[in-house]
Amino acid sequence: MNKRFAVPALVGMLSAGLLLSACGGSDGGAFGPERASISVTGQDSLPPNLLQWDPQIGGPYTATLQVSAENDHGPIVNFLNEDDEFENAEFQCQLIGSTLDRASLYYMDGSEGRDLVEHPATGEWFRAAYRSITLENNSGTASFHLHAGTDTGTATVRCGVVDPASIQEGTRREFVFAEHTIEIGAT
After folding, report:
1. Residue 35: C-alpha distances to residues 27, 44, 168, 172 (Å)
2. pTM for the model
3. What stretch of H or E contains 6?
4. Signed CA dihedral, 117, 122, 123, 125: sign only
């Protein structure tokens, strides 16, 4: 290799690398900002709850599910919103294609007004069942619970989180989704 060419080329490459580092690096790679991925994991089956037992962590009719989101930088906890302010990346989860007689979602975190609700007529406290829930995300992951009902069949949970790359690109908020299916009545 010609020495007259090698030194300026090396200096140019080093300068470009330093410039990128000083400006905060690249936008996530040669193909644009890194994309988020999300997963939902947990049990794949539950027996039907013919005795209509209440939900209970670790109980025979209650599955604990975990939702996680990450990108190339690690867990997605928050992101810069359109106003350049940090916003918590909450998980949105919902039952799709299923009735509450087959399955329902629970927080089971002990919070009044969300997990524990007071019956207006009797004053008794009970766990509130949901078709969709919003989960706080403080580490890129969150857990929630699905409780089997009396009907058998498939209960599918779909969870989504905002993809931070969509905001960096200046487009509307786009979500990434994942689903988890639990068979109620599978043996």
Report:
1. 11, 27, 11, 15
2. 0.75
3. helix 3-22
4. negative
